[in-house]
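Reviewers of the previous submission asked for a worked example of the structure-prediction workflow described in the proposal, so we include one complete record here. The input consisted solely of the amino acid sequence. No template or homolog information was supplied to the procedure at any stage.
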Amino acid sequence: MANGADMKELLDRIEAEIAGIKRQYDLFFQGARRSEPSDKRREVEETVRRMGQRKIVNSNDQFRFHSLQSRFYSLSNLWVRMVRDLEEGRTKRDPSGTLVRGASPPPDPVDPAHIEQVIAELVEARRACGLPAGEEKDLSATRKALLARAREIAGKSGGRKVEFRISVEAGKPKVKARVS
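From that input alone, the workflow returned the following structure tokens.
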């Protein structure tokens, strides 16, 4: 068992190692360091784990150690999550090397050809019901409305594809959406 001065030195060293590994990971995520400092992180993790198995008598030292341990594990979880996001493509590096989240816009939830097909079916259904088919400017507004509605539905359903179909109810054509 270490005495009070040795314990404080040990805790100071652990705190300095955590700060050092944090700097190394910051450099890695900023693009200044080419590889992840996982070896150094494992060394610090082993030191923290061994220290956690020791009996710490002084409550101040015990509180300080638990704070350091909590901080290290929180940072470690953050680093693992950020590296996973980088590997899975959820984050990308910009030309300067820093990580950027959400670099590419999500694709449209509906195919433009499908919208044209739905518009044609809607015009045909309106004619079959004896309603005016509409002018080109009205159809343009309908295209925009369908695309906006598809984006809204896809946003609520987690970004999946949206399909529209035409049904006639009570003598009026209706546009129905379905998530696929």
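The helical segments are 4-30, 38-52, 59-88, 112-128, 136-156. We consider this example representative of the routine output the project will generate in years two and three.
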